[in-house]
Amino acid sequence: MFLLVFFCSICSATNPFAPDDKHAKSIKGMKLVFHDEFNRDGEANPDVWSYETGYQRNEELQWYQSKNASCKNGCLVIEGRRENFQNPNYNPESKSWKTNRKTVNYSSASVITAGKKSWLYGRFEMRARIDTAMGSWPAIWTLGVSKEWPSCGEVDLMEFYRSEGVPTILANVVSGTTERYKGKWDSERKSLDSLLKNDKTWPPKFHVWRMDWNKDSINLYLDDVLMNSTLLSQTINPDGSNPFLQPHSLLLNLALGSNGGNPSLSRFPILFEVDYVRVYQNVE
Whole-angstrom Cα distance, residue 222 to residue 198? Predict the structure, then answer.
């Protein structure tokens, strides 16, 4: 009997190097209110997802475009690519980095639920595999549906980039300050080297990033290990509002350059593969 149970447990274990083809698990006291397993070919479900376009933020190198994201082999695959085409918004007189770049040298995708799906509280689980190549800056994050950044609130369930030159996984919660466009950051970091010490095969594996969010706190996990815990009593904007007492939408994106480092010598494509997105909420 022991051997049979042991054998069955091995058979049912999820392959860490491949997408998980099992159904979303049940969680006691919680209801699965949304999930996308990306088990389709072609574009992501247009009823849920849309795309950012062009240059967006942080003076990053990539031009966002929808064709860099597609569902295949059970994942949403976001590809960072080398490019060489004219910036359609180019203006040689412009002082903006978005319009004074004559050519686009890199492209990627940012897939978002804004205007289509948002959630207030719950457990958010995303299984994904990230590319740790120089220049790569993948992220799983949320933004509140009202107010401008950062007073809208931002949660980074996962960011990977080079923090002071060191490849690092970050988990962040951001709220507003008295200065426009300056956020109050509660940030926790774990170096890639520290993860590699425990598991030399960490980069090619899929990992689970999770947020447990309620009216009192936000807790962020990597593979069930707590990364960051933030009390919502500490996230009040100067106007008295709290950005985490409102629904948030979800963003899945792969930036290139900027904090990610210089990708000029990296091999392409750089990939960010999302196996699934699942949202659970407490049963009332």
Answer: 14
